[in-house]
Write a structure and sequence with these properties.
Blueprint (H helix, E strand, L loop, with lengths): L5 H14 L4 H22 L5 E8 L2 E8 L2 E7 L7 E3 L15 E5 L4 E7 L3 E5 L2 E5 L3 E3 L3 H7 L5 E3 L1 H4 L2 E6 L4 E6 L10 E8 L2 E8 L8 E7 L7 E4 L1 H7 L2 H9 L2 E11 L2 E11 L11 E3 L7 E6 L4 E6 L22 E4 L25
Parallel strand pairs: 3-10, 4-9, 15-19, 16-18, 17-22
Antiparallel strand pairs: 1-2, 1-12, 2-3, 4-10, 5-6, 6-9, 7-8, 11-12, 11-20, 13-14, 13-21, 14-15, 16-19, 17-18, 20-21
Helix pairs in contact: 1-2
């Protein structure tokens, strides 16, 4: 649904006013002219993107293609990363960049640390558009981290990149549109979520019901497009409901969590059999943060990430017959590659016998 612009609204009002005072043929002419004017105004109001960037979808995540130092690189779009990264490789060498002093970089999802050096300036281009980043880090080759990355991408686009633009992702067309910061795309989208920005990180205040809850409650979830899964609950208050006290101790010791297949309502869509990972609270975690929402939850949508405007805009994707997008559960992703137990947390339905006998066929027991 598109909201009419003030200019378009004025044209409609003018048409109505003139139609009441003009002959039929003249009123039709004015109506046609006003209609064309409104259409032209709507077209003019559509913002032009700075760039259209080719993307691939792998492990539910967006990999954007940018040319860096003369070679096309696939960069993971990651709202969970504060800083953009480039990984050392054949086409990304230390001698190509002006690097600063080395520092230790932690990768919680990989349980690894690596040596990173700030890049003074690096140019990224997509088609005719290019921009310079002065906030990226260069990560020296590390066998363990490169093994985890698996060669799928050669860098990460973090929030320092996302905060420079309004980013529209169109999975069906395999492209990502970059708009100037402050561009308003809300009229083109049915659903809008406000983002709670804390220390530059985007959080969703999302209300849904878990199997052990009597009614829906609001959860505070980090929007993390770098996590390929769906919903993660990292909090002792949830962990204590899926594991008994003794079981919690053994799971903590083995760095395991619990996975159940739940019913999650998100942005007018009902996700059935969505894998939900539940683990204990993380070290240093604030009590009001429940976990995170990953890239799988965005698969059924065309969407806009606007960190500057603190908005997440969504438009559901459907097939030609109006059937919703299918998300495979063949692979279960955990946020830190943890092992897990699978539990059936569906509510137990009571047994209710139903009389199927006719009265004449029923034996009546004497009192």
């Amino acid at each position: 649904m598109h909201k009419a612009t003030p200019w378009a609204t004025a044209a409609i009002m003018l048409t109505a006013l003139l139609q009441s005072h003009l002959p039929c043929q003249a009123s039709e002419t004015v109506a046609k002219a006003a209609s064309e004017t409104v259409a032209g105004a709507a077209a003019d109001a559509t913002p032009a993107p700075l760039a259209s960037v080719a993307v691939d979808l792998a492990d539910n995540r967006i990999h954007a293609a940018f040319t860096i130092a003369g070679h096309v690189q696939k960069l993971l779009l990651d709202t969970g990363a504060s800083t953009s990264l480039l990984f050392e490789g054949p086409a990304l060498r230390p001698d190509q960049f002006n690097l600063g002093a080395a520092t230790s970089i932690s990768f919680p999802a990989f349980k690894q640390t690596a040596t990173g050096r700030p890049i003074a300036s690096v140019r990224l281009t997509a088609g005719d558009y290019g921009f310079t980043s002065e906030t990226m880090l260069f990560i020296r080759a590390d066998a363990d981290i490169l093994a985890e990355v698996g060669g799928q991408f050669t860098g990460i686009l973090g929030r320092d990149f996302l905060s420079r633009f309004v980013v529209e992702v169109i999975p069906s067309e395999k492209r990502m549109m970059l708009y100037p910061k402050g561009t308003d795309l809300k009229p083109a989208y049915r659903i809008r979520h406000d983002l709670v920005m804390e220390d530059g990180a985007p959080y969703l205040m999302h209300r849904f019901r878990l199997p052990w809850e009597p009614w829906p409650s609001t959860k505070k979830l980090l929007l993390d497009t770098g996590y390929p899964g769906g919903v993660v609950l990292w909090h002792d208050r949830h962990f204590s409901r899926v594991a008994a006290t003794a079981e919690q101790q053994s799971l903590r010791a083995a760095n395991k969590g619990v996975v159940f297949f739940g019913l999650i309502r998100f942005s007018k869509l009902l996700f059935r059999n969505m894998p939900v990972y539940v683990g204990p609270s993380r070290a240093g975690q604030r009590g009001d943060r429940d976990g995170l929402m990953g890239a799988s939850m965005l698969l059924p949508f065309r969407y806009v990430i606007d960190l500057g405007g603190a908005n997440l805009l969504l438009q559901p994707r459907v097939t030609g017959r109006g059937i919703g997008y299918h998300i495979s559960n063949e692979v279960i992703y955990t946020p830190g590659n943890e092992d897990f137990l699978i539990k059936d947390l569906r509510p137990r339905v009571g047994s209710t016998p139903k009389d199927t006998f006719q009265k004449d066929d029923t034996e009546v027991m004497p009192q």
